[in-house]
Design brief:
Layout: H1 3-15, H2 23-49, E1 53-54, H3 62-74, H4 90-95, H5 104-126, H6 133-144, H7 150-168, H8 183-191, H9 202-229, H10 236-245, E2 260-269, E3 272-284, H11 287-319, H12 322-333, H13 347-372, H14 375-420
Antiparallel strand pairs: 1-3, 2-3
Helix pairs in contact: 2-5, 2-11, 5-9, 6-7, 6-13, 7-13, 7-14, 9-11, 12-13, 13-14
Length: 421
């Protein structure tokens, strides 16, 4: 049992859902989206209940106080360290301006949607394949359940075997139907998975493209935060770890998440349009204490997601190699559960079953069944596909080929005899 299978079972127990992917994918479109939406809801609630608080001159009336809070909340404040003098230059104030705290809930929702885009792509283009992997995994999951009725379990297994067999036997998938395709057409059809639907690697190309999208999206999340916060957020976590190991407490004077800022505003006198008073008041952003902790968590979550995405991408690349696919199928067919299979020593049959019958897509579907149900179910499916579907067709084609070869030999002999005689 490998890492994917273990995590797939844990996720199935936690969610009770049938998945057509692996745990690394669900970290992106399910858990990351849930975390971001949850933070957006919390931040929205705190944003309008615990707004900015500003210190105003004593002669300000309560109405003025409310006005200052609203103005400083709507417009951007700027950060100046408490040991520095208040700058007079507008450019310096603009450089230290905070642009994000009013928009955090909306930005988090946008980030959640971006995380879900690869999943939308996988679902949309997967429907064009002609087979529903989710239905196969759900049937495999039902077959694994010991409480399920035996007739229903058998019906589920038959459905999985029939569906994979029909998909693999599609005449448009076969090599003889693709013999006219040159190397340039094949390369283009492989890159453009929509036109290469019948090359036998449609799901593989689509899935690996989705994997690359997950990697790109997770890296883009950190870049998006750097733009929003106005600083290089990529090294923020390193600074946090460094302060932790040096025993330095939480940075309350953080440039990214300052707790105290300055706000400039103007009050115009009624009846005197040319007469106005400019004020600079210090303000407190209580929400930034929560934001600092939230974005620190998100930073390390993104690092985890990016790392798992990259590792999982290369694990799948290794799994799709021809040698690994053949060894994977041979190991299941030579399992102790089916001792008769051990008498089959023809390596050509294994290679033909893996390369020409299953192809890359068939192997990919079986791998997803293994990781979302169990290795036992996948071994049952492989055995039935090999014994009941592939071998009869393989032996029939070999017999037909032998008959035609004998006929050709007889014709050649007859023709040679006529020439001699």
């Amino acid at each position: 049992m490998d890492f994917h299978s273990i995590m797939g079972r844990v996720t199935t127990i936690m969610t009770g859902k049938r998945n057509d992917d692996v745990i690394a994918d669900r970290l992106n479109y399910r858990y990351s989206v849930a975390i971001l939406v949850g933070f957006a809801i919390l931040n929205m609630n705190r944003l309008y209940t615990d707004q900015i608080k500003c210190w105003v001159p004593a002669f300000f009336t309560p109405n003025y106080d409310e006005y200052v809070r609203s103005v400083c909340f709507v417009q951007n404040t700027y950060y100046v360290h408490h040991t520095e003098k208040t700058p007079r230059s507008y450019d310096i104030k603009k450089q230290n301006e905070l642009l994000y705290y009013q928009w955090i809930p909306f930005v988090l929702l946008v980030k959640a949607f971006i995380f879900y885009i690869p999943r939308l792509s996988w679902n949309t283009f997967g429907l064009k394949s002609g087979i529903q992997i989710g239905d196969l995994i759900e049937s495999s999951f039902d077959y694994k359940q010991p409480t399920t009725d035996s007739s229903h379990r058998q019906m589920c297994l038959d459905f999985v075997v029939d569906s994979i067999d029909q998909y693999c036997l599609d005449r448009r998938h076969k090599n003889d139907e693709r013999s006219h395709i040159n190397i340039f057409q094949r390369s283009f059809m492989t890159i453009c998975c929509l036109t290469g639907k019948y090359l036998g690697n449609y799901f593989v190309i689509l899935y690996m493209t989705t994997k690359l999208m997950y990697i790109g999206v997770s890296i883009f999340q950190i870049y998006l935060l750097s733009i929003m916060l106005g600083s290089n957020f990529a090294f923020y976590g390193i600074q946090v770890v460094d302060r932790f190991f040096r025993g330095i407490h939480w940075d309350t004077e953080s440039r990214l998440f300052p707790k105290t800022t300055l706000c400039d505003f103007t009050i115009r006198e009624f009846g005197h349009p040319k007469l106005s008073h400019e004020y600079t008041v210090p303000c407190v952003l209580p929400l930034n204490l929560f934001n600092q902790q939230m974005f620190t968590f998100l930073y390390f979550w993104y690092v985890l997601v990016i790392s798992l995405n990259i590792c999982d991408f290369f694990l799948w690349l290794q799994a799709f190699t021809l040698r690994n696919r053949i060894d994977f199928i041979r190991k299941r067919l030579h399992s102790k559960k089916y001792p008769l299979i051990n008498d089959i020593n023809n390596e050509m049959k294994f290679q033909t079953f893996t390369i020409d019958y299953l192809e890359s897509d068939g192997f990919f579907i079986l791998s997803l069944i293994k990781e979302n149900s169990s290795d036992y179910v996948m071994t049952e499916v492989i055995h039935r596909l090999y014994i009941e579907r592939f071998l009869p067709k393989y032996l029939r084609e070999r017999k037909t080929s032998t008959i035609y070869d004998d006929i050709d030999i007889k014709r050649k002999r007859s023709h040679l005899c006529s020439l001699i005689c």
